Amino acid sequence: MNDAIAITSGTVVLPDMMLANATVVVQNGTICWVGPDDGASVPPDAAILPAAGKLVLPGLIDTHIHGSNGDDVMLDGEDSLRRISRDLLRYGVTAWLPSTLAAPHADLIRAIGWCRDVVRNPGDGAIPLGIHVEGPYINPAKKGAQPPDGIRPPDLDECRALLDEADGTATMMTLAPELPGADRLIELLLSRGVIPSLGHSDADYETAMAAIRAGATHATHLFNAMPTLHHRKPGLVAACLNNPDVYVEVIADGVHLHPAMVRMVAKLKGPNRAVLITDAMSAVGRPDGTYTLGPNVVYVKGDRCTLADGTIASSMLTMNRAVRNAAEYAGIPLPEAARMASLLPAKLCGVGDRKGSLERGKDADIAVLNQDFTAFATIVGGKVLYRA
Fold this sequence. Notes:
The chain is α/β, with parallel strands linked by helices. The protein folds into 2 domains: 4-57 and 358-387, Urease, subunit C, domain 1 (Roll); 59-348, Metal-dependent hydrolases (TIM Barrel, Alpha-Beta Barrel), CATH 3.20.20. The protein contains 10 helices and 22 strands. The protein has helices at 77-88, 105-120, 156-166, 182-191, 205-214, 235-242, 259-269, 319-328, 334-340, 343-348, and strands spanning 4-13, 18-27, 30-36, 47-50, 55-58, 60-65, 67-68, 71-72, 93-100, 127-128, 131-134, 170-175, 195-198, 218-219, 247-251, 274-277, 289-293, 296-301, 304-306, 366-369, 375-380, 383-387. Strands 6, 9, 10, 11, 12, 13, 14, 15 and 16 form a 9-stranded parallel beta sheet that branches. Strands 1, 2, 3, 4, 5, 20, 21 and 22 form an 8-stranded mixed beta sheet that branches. Strands 17-18-19 form a 3-stranded antiparallel beta sheet, with no helix packed on it. A hairpin with a 2-residue loop joins strand 18 (296-301) and strand 19 (304-306). The radius of gyration is 20 Å and the shape is globular.
């Protein structure tokens, strides 16, 4: 079976530049050449994927997503998660973190168990790298669309049980640092190799800074479900923006954040700490209508998803559109926008040494996009798993 692929004559997006009329050669699941067409060493039996007029990006990585195309991480089991993995290929996504919601203990244990099993046996689709446990230890005053009956104060014994169920597959947990016991929760997460992420929080600046000093190095959907940035009450947003070691998520859909805010975050965090996410739900890929986000009923019209009271609830964003929006609407140079959706999330998940950029020796996870950023082909581990 032919295991070599040459993606030819495309515009290759590297971490700090774009290379026109370039070729990427893949063999045995690994990138073995990136450079000009006229210098490429293409194996004679390689399958040729012509990419003239197209963009060749590293495979996109979504570290915060709740569902897609009718499937919900919290509701529908392992087969549903594998369907999400396959559906994400349509958007150039090659890896993701299935993300849970706040939920009663038994429901959360069940969902984490599904995610764990799919991380270990992913099937043919985007690779689940781990689990983003969003809640349940968050502030009900900043719940956003999180189910209120699933929110509770930190419980270390319960958290140990959740992490035991994940059995090494939990990548991060979102928590509110102002809650009693949050400091010990952060310590527990770090001891188990889990990233503490600050979010769904009403923390003031000092409390947020204390959590960052304790080891919380990530913020969940910055600006959303947290106090507004204020010049006399800087809050969690300013704490995260001021600290160069903190990764921050941004939802670049034009609903959650104005493009100017996305541009500001990219400038303040520099090239190494702002991560594009979707926070997407099961309605992605479906028409306007009524859908579920865990137990919540969500009303979808265009790009806006809301609860009955008008609260924004998840999104209809896809990662290829997030990159397009960051580049075209927020004015972020395309190499940087692509890096925010590939190399930075790869580093966050601890796989930046083998994923997230088009470099020799790295995994052949590649998104070939049309000029309008729709996916033309998605390659995972050197296999073309999607072709438009």
